[in-house]
Design goal:
It is built from four helices and eleven strands. With 201 residues, the protein is an alpha+beta fold.
Length: 201
């Protein structure tokens, strides 16, 4: 599955929705080698035709180990990841949508305890001042959108759920749900949610 479809699937889904009911939720079931592995990857900057490069954890800029490891040891936490994109119409974008900001929510559970965490794309744990004025075209900036999730876990989540831990791996990301909203409206809010399992150590 291509990364643009994993992030939101805007172009294909909006086209399909024109013949659908007024409100649509498009769901996909993530495969072991599909969703999580593809979601946590980015294009090779030296060769766009090469296989994607895994995003690294716990620091996407300096770490050398891929984030995705279904067999990772450590203390396991499961939860729900939600991203809400605020979008406006822009014919300069191939998707006709421009993202002005994105808001992230991650609720992790262990046993009977749940802890919520949140951040945003522009001024959160991984600030993007270069996009404050003009945002970015939907589907054109997927790696940075995903790296915000990595930094949310690394910088805000781990210090709370496991203060002595210094690293984590994503064991799985499944049950992606993409909410498209009203069929005749291309603007407003778009979003996704998914089940996530991480191992911290």
């Amino acid at each position: 599955m291509k990364r643009t479809n994993i992030i939101l699937g805007i172009a294909a889904a909006v086209g399909m929705m024109l013949a659908a009911a007024p409100s649509v939720t498009w769901a996909e079931s993530a495969s072991r080698t599909g969703a999580a592995e593809d979601f946590l990857s980015e294009p090779d900057p030296t060769d766009p035709l090469a296989p994607p490069i895994p995003i690294k954890c716990p620091d996407p800029e300096i770490s050398t180990d891929p984030c995705f490891d279904p067999n990772a040891p450590g203390t396991k936490f499961s939860g729900t990841l939600t991203i809400v994109f605020h979008v406006v119409g822009d014919t300069a974008c191939t998707t006709n949508l421009r993202v002005t900001n994105a808001y992230y929510s991650l609720t992790l559970r262990q046993g009977n305890s749940s802890v919520p965490f949140a951040t945003e794309y522009l001024a959160g744990v991984r600030p993007h001042p270069e996009h404050v004025t003009n945002g970015f075209c939907m589907g054109s900036n997927d790696p940075e959108v995903v790296k915000v999730i990595v930094d949310l876990v690394s910088l805000k989540t781990i210090p709370i759920i496991c203060p002595a831990c210094t690293s984590f791996k994503v064991k799985s990301i499944t049950n992606f749900l993409y909410t498209q909203g009203e069929v005749l409206s291309s603007f407003g809010s778009k979003g996704l949610s998914a089940d996530i399992v991480i191992a911290v150590r």
